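Sample entry (179 residues):
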Amino acid sequence: TDQAAFPVEFGCPVCTCRLEITQIGKYKCPKCGCYFLADASGDVQALRLEEAKMIELKLPSDTTFIDGLRTMTRSFGREFDYSDEIIEIMDQGIDEAFAMVVRMARDPQELCNVFMVGNSEELITGVFSGNKRFDDDSMEIKLSLKIIENAMDEVNVIEMPSGGQMVRMKKVIRAPLEV
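Predicted structure, serialized as tokens:
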């Protein structure tokens, strides 16, 4: 390692933000999110990352809409060549999160928000509805969260400004390449 080469001042080619690279490694521009790689000689290059896609749905809290949700999940998976096995596993977790919202709804017309952001390496899905909370100590909620955890690689319950919570699920499709 040529420590004399560091720090390196670098201008992000995307947003022109000035960055200081202090050592070998992978860095992310805090302004635009572009990634960079610094090598031992102090050379810095931007990394081209695959563009992520996002889908958002607002569905009535009614199980008759679960087929539409599955269609969205499968279409998203096919867009990035997910295996049928991965798509089936994702369906299980997303279906269960949607079913939790449906069970908690007082009215089938209450909207359930579902979003998916992903690329060929991972899929992140969020499910929430108004002020619904998923930290209930009931056996039903605990069982649902366990089903989701078994299907996904990472599951978090996140506080929302509405006072409700979102179930955030992450499924790793392919491990990212080591740089």
